[in-house]
Design brief:
This protein is of the alpha+beta class. It contains ten helices and twelve strands. A hairpin with a 4-residue loop joins strand 6 and strand 7. The N terminus and C terminus are likely disordered. It binds heme C and copper (II) ion.
């Protein structure tokens, strides 16, 4: 059979019209898209967000043009170069067209290199270490973030000292407190698997790698500087999201960035009250426990209605005080709860696996827990039940010798400051009352 087509098909005027219409549609479409995108993207809440968005637009425009070009050519080919009804022949054989091939290799290569260079520049500029990071009262502060299935914890290692002369660490749970213009530089650590710290409004995202830093694990860093957003009332809140699928609770692994208007507001509304609360904990251990327990990642695994927790990796804490006394023969409710927290592996609740994190004075960061904190948590959990098995009444909790030894305690703990005598007197009375029941 003779091939009656010329080697290079001629382009009909109709094809040119279709191509022109397509180009017009794509230009209008992209233009419309770029005016509409800012409505979809979150506010530009950091100094870095402008350059990230610019990069995004360039990528969208180039990607959009390529998309419309290819789809347009496909459409034109389908309409104008489709096989005729009576044509059963093979298509013509084309031999190379070196000029065309060089052109269609070099242009995309240049585009890709251009995109790589501008992307690298933005990344480089935004992740560059800054001087004077995490400034609070004129001093640099280390802020550590721990990611664990399925919660974030933020720890501020402040320059303020407690009465023992150690730096005060503020644990603000799943909230990062910062202020406009503060050069935030977070040290990120994963406790179990890879997580990713993503603050869409700040246009930053960084993976966390598992592994204890003392044994070769590597903390990662994330940097951004909150910027003022017009028309927003401060303090403003922006979500933190885990962007690395880390298990079945991944979707609820969230936190909040709270941006204050300036350092003064930050100090007044967050920092000073937090320091004050640490230096002057409520004397009532239950009140103290309610604060302390929220500084840990217990909410990432447990359900507890009174604090709004709804995780299911571990057993529910609702009514825990009613069950605690019967879990392990010979263990009192307080003893059981305390043991569950500092050494969960000692008894694994039927139906669950050994997934609970270890807490204790020798653990690091998010899992570091002093005996005082443990006592407070036990006191608080002892109130979670109808007929609590615990024999305390909002006061001192009887903790066994084994735990005192484990936590290196040689004295009895007194909650709060000042009126500890009144406190322990009250506790003796209530303990006696409890025993006589
Ligand atoms: C990584 C997930 C995880 C975290 C974080 C976690 N737990 Fe657990 N917890 C578990 C699991 C799983 C169990 C059941 C298995 C076991 O007993 O070890 C459990 C058991 C318990 C129990 C015993 C419950 C019962 O019904 O007998 C208590 C009490 C408890 N956890 C308290 C806490 C407290 C307080 C915290 C925070 C300081 C905490 N847990 C943090 C997963 C977790
Ligand atoms: Cu995660």
């Amino acid at each position: 059979m003779e091939n009656n087509r010329s080697n290079i098909p001629s382009i009909s005027p109709a094809a040119v019209v279709v191509a022109a219409v397509f180009l017009l549609v794509s230009v209008i479409g992209i233009n419309w898209f770029t005016t509409f995108v800012p409505e979809v993207l979150p506010a530009q809440a950091s100094a870095e967000s402008k350059s990230v968005d610019e990069l995004f637009y360039i990528l969208v425009i180039i990607g959009g043009l390529v998309f419309f070009l290819i789809q347009g050519m496909l459409l034109i080919s389908v309409i104008f170069f489709r096989v005729r009804d009576d044509d059963r022949s093979d298509g013509p054989t084309y031999h190379g067209n070196p000029l065309l091939e060089v052109v269609w290799t070099i242009i995309p290569a240049l585009v890709v290199v251009y995109l790589a260079v501008i992307s690298f520049n933005v990344w480089n500029q935004n992740s560059e270490p800054k001087a004077a990071v995490n400034m609070i009262n004129g001093e640099e502060t280390v802020i550590r973030v721990t990611g664990a299935r399925y919660a974030w914890t933020h720890n501020y290692e402040t320059s303020r000292l407690n009465p023992e002369g150690e730096p005060i660490v503020i644990n603000s749970g799943d909230k990062l407190h910062t202020y406009i213009g503060q050069n935030v530089d977070l040290e990120l650590r994963a406790q179990d698997v890879i997580h990713s710290y993503w603050v869409p409004a700040m246009r930053v995202k960084q993976d966390l790698l598992p592994g204890n830093p003392d044994t070769g694990g590597r903390p990662t860093e994330i940097r951004f500087t909150p910027a003022r957003v017009e028309g927003v009332e401060y303090p403003a809140e922006y979500p933190i999201v885990c962007a690395e699928l880390c298990g079945d609770g991944h979707g609820r692994m969230r936190g909040t960035v709270i941006v204050y208007e300036d350092e003064a507001q930050f100090l007044e509304q967050f920092y000073e009250p937090a320091i004050h609360a640490i230096l002057n904990p409520p004397a009532d251990p239950v009140l103290r426990g309610e604060i302390v327990i929220q500084e840990y990642i217990c909410n990432s695994c447990h359900t507890l209605d009174s604090l709004g927790w709804s995780s299911r990796t571990g057993p529910s804490m609702n009514g825990i005080a009613d069950r605690a006394g019967e879990r392990v023969a010979g263990q009192s409710a307080e003893e059981y709860i305390a043991t569950s927290v500092w050494n969960a592996q000692a008894f694994v609740v039927p139906g669950y696996t050994e997934q609970m994190a270890v807490f204790g004075p020798d653990q690091s960061d998010a899992n570091k827990m002093s005996a005082e904190q443990l006592y407070a948590i036990v006191a608080y959990l002892c109130t979670q039940g109808e007929q609590s098995d615990c024999d305390n009444e909002n006061s001192t909790v009887a903790i066994p010798e084994a735990i005192k030894t484990a936590f290196g305690l040689d004295v009895d703990i007194t909650f709060g400051q000042g009126d500890s005598e009144a406190e322990s007197a009250a506790s003796e009375t209530s303990e006696e009352a409890g025993e006589s029941e």
